[in-house]
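Worked example

This section walks through a single chain of length 300. The input is the sequence exactly as stored; nothing has been trimmed or padded.
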Amino acid sequence: MKPIPVLLGPTASGKTALALQLARRFPIEILSADAMLVYRGMDIGTAKPTLAERQEVPHHLIDVTEVQEDYDVARFVQDAEEALQQIVDRKRIPLVVGGTGFYVKALKQGLPLTPRVDESVQQTLWSELETRGLDALLSDIAQVNPEEALRMQRNPRRVVRALEVFRRTGKFPGEFGYTTPGFEYQLFGLSPALPELEKRIALRVEQMFQQGLIQEVQTVMAKLGPAARRPTALQAIGYKEVLEGLEAGEIEKTMQDKIALATRQYAKRQLTWLKTQLHTECQPFPEVEKALEWFLTSWV
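Given that input, the structure is written out below as tokens.
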């Protein structure tokens, strides 16, 4: 079997549009590799494929868990490999699509053989995160291992996990061995030039507010109720800024500007990750479409 194609790229780069376009010409089923699309009820802020799009083309690992639950990389790899095998068994072509490079790297490289979570150490670190801030904890990692700090992608949950393991073992998660991947993969990177990407991000954020992002965040919070710690789902860009904006009494335009800025910064980090961690250079839509068409034509 040929390697499974993976369509990567920063947020708002056009991955969903290209995947759907290809699925109209090839017997494709799409497997999402996006850490936030797994959560039910988080549709607008994650730019989740619409119900009509999911009815047109089979999608996997979308809406598989509730917002109050944590969904980690180990569960993703297990669920993804099971779904990929089922797609292959149906004589269909699996296409992995996503912007969470950490998930794709785990599929491609295997899962690190790190120790099991120590909740007491993690609770201490969550308290430190509240008092010292994310940048301070990232600095602790960077002083020892700058590459590991980059691998965190400013994700608080990963930062807490990395420091928990380091304080217990003297090693970071990335320094342990890995499980054997279930498949081989061929990576394709998609992104317009940065000025065009920034325009696309601004338009997407504007559309999210028009579609009711504020109401969606309020609905998610009503479902969660009071909690000692906000779950992973609410770390998503858009939800975090709206939640903080509502608490601070900010106007919609302020929240919109903050989300657009955070998204631009995230997109740049994604591009860096793809280049340094997955050794994938992103290209414009026509070039990637052509390369994937050639690859899918020869896929057996």
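What to look for: The chain has two domains: 4-111+180-297, 119-175.
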